[in-house]
Amino acid sequence: MEEENGREAKLKDEITRWLIFFGVAIMLSVMTWLGWSLTNRKSPIASFTTLVSDSSVAIGIQGSAPESLDIRSEQGTAIEQALLENVYETLVSRSETNKLQPSIAKSWQISDDGLTYTFTLNTNMTFANGHKLDSSDVVWSLQNVINNNYVDADQLGDLKEITNPDENTVVITLNQPNPRLLRALSGRAGIVYDEESKADYSKKAVGSGPFTVEASSKTQIVLQRNDSYWGTKAAASQITLYYYASEDSLVSAMEAKKISMALPLSASTADELNQQSGINSDSGISFDKVMLAFNNGTESPFSDEQIRKMTRYAIDAQSIAKDAPDAYSPLGGPISPLEDGYEDLSELFPYNLEQGQQMRSYFGANYIADINLLVPKEYEQIGNTVKSAIEQLNIGVNMEVLDSAAQVTERMNAGTYNIALTTMSGENDASVFTDGQSVFHFENGDAQQAYANAMAATNDNDYQDRMRTYARTVSESAASDWLYTRKNFIAVSGQLQGYPKNLTDRLLPLNRIKLH
């Protein structure tokens, strides 16, 4: 009996040892598998950074909806604001601070002579209709932009050849350098369309972006998340853009919680909405340059460079920028902070009334006739400040307050002004000071040569440096007086996340926006 009990005990010990062995082996196998999963699998770890939701977001925009969905030919910024980077993607894109970054092309190289651009595309890209996106679509799209002279086709420069050696490579060859080519390819001219699509672009948008157009009308555009998008999926499942004719109607919609974001707003309205529970105001930088435009034409007193300079010394631009509620920063030159070649030139003509008056003394008391100053009503206070400053130079000023900025522009186009308080809003619009036939009538050989040098640059560093030289030349000649760069103002629901701030008047990337 004792011998049998001993055999049973020995058997139990052996079974126990085997059970422990198998348990340890299973545990090690599980740990090994988990380790392999963490280091080699994209899911579930990667999913934490690409979480999507079923949230629907409503955004209110002051202005008119695009008349057509055809971004190839539809004029104005409204179509770009709605569709660019949302429905349509470009070969190169730009960040919220307007820096170039990868998009359909994941990388690019530029030859030393600035004439050959080689783009390497991402792989496994598709359009929203399921068609494959590759280099042939890029070549076809660029050729159509040029052949049909679509919007911004002229920005591509003097193209010699566009080829695709393989499905992931595109080569663009120029006849002469165009340092702005990459910028052009981040805008409408760089949109990649589906070569196989037969869609009516005026009614349907077939792009490769994170959204599709579900519906559109004269008052709204409905964007639906593209769940088959080749990149990071949009955070919101649906975004509706509502268009309002006035700021008052836009504000009413925001107060009634019909929308979660409202733009653009005046500084005062944004501040008022910020006082309400559940609504926050925010701001970003724009391309807008608030300036005193000088008419340099021969019939204007400001055809004289010394009169332009003494006027700039008499105007305290720094204080104007400090007090203006829509000012981002003082400027002093024709290039804003988000544009290529920016440099703060506000110190070129620091406020120095004594110096201005001394320069004035070189002219006879009656040599300078009373000048006409045009001011839009929204900037009447700044206009009064400018009027008082110029009068301290013993120059009479007739200030005319117009109802809108558009009316000021009309008068400038007609040439019936000496000084106009206005806004320049375009990217790269500094080039206007090379054209003596522009509304500024500014002609300067040094400035024209400096600009030509910039446009002949074969790399971005040289281009930026040369544009700074150009801007300084224009400002030192006092072609006008640039007061400050303007902000964009928006109002958002306290629950809204991931919304853009800069350049929202023309670019509105919505892929990160969501309610929480």
Q: Brief overview, please?
A:
The protein has 516 residues and is an alpha+beta fold. The protein contains 13 helices and 21 strands.
Can you tell me about this structure?
The structure is a single chain. This protein is an alpha+beta fold and 516 residues long. Helix content is 30%, strand content 24%. It has helices at 2-40, 78-83, 135-147, 181-184, 247-255, 267-274, 305-314, 317-323, 353-360, 380-391, 405-414, 445-455, 460-476; strands at residues 56-62, 92-94, 100-102, 105-110, 116-121, 125-126, 132-133, 159-166, 169-174, 211-216, 220-225, 238-244, 261-265, 279-294, 327-330, 371-376, 397-402, 419-424, 480-493, 496-497, 514-515. Strands 1, 10, 11, 12, 13, 14, 15, 16, 17, 18 and 19 form an 11-stranded mixed beta sheet that branches. Strand 2 (92-94) and strand 3 form a beta hairpin. Helix 7 (305-314) runs antiparallel to helix 9 (353-360) and helix 12 runs antiparallel to helix 13 (460-476). It is globular. The relative contact order is 0.14. The model is unreliable at 1-12 and 18-50 (pLDDT under 50).
